[in-house]
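Database export, one record per block. Field names are fixed; values are copied verbatim from the stored entry.
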Amino acid sequence: MLLYKLMTKEDYQNIMHTLSENVSEGIYIVSSDGMSLLYNKSMSKLEEMKPEDVIGKNLNEVQSNIPDGESTLIRALKFKNKTNNCNQTYINHYGKEITTINTTIPVLNKENEVIAAIEIA
């Protein structure tokens, strides 16, 4: 944690961007209110969706074909549920059936409140 305090916010953002764009796993991060914050190249390839159709949009808009009860991201945001290696089949934004294996993790602050959810596919 000491290293983080010595970096600028921009340096930290550059590190996170470089990491997310150079791993083979798909990464999708949404804020506590469901706003799409990060959608990397690997996730774009897996889900066959363009990042510009995801980033800055609400999860319910992006994943409108996934019922709330089946969405691991919504369960992470609402109930702090972590899901490991969950096989999900759903229809993407363009009407194409997609199947992925996802691990979804709620991100908590020091007050134990959900601030985001991360999906790794």
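Remark 1: The CA atoms of residues 34 and 59 lie 5 Å apart.
Remark 2: The first strand starts at residue 27 and ends at 31.
End of record.
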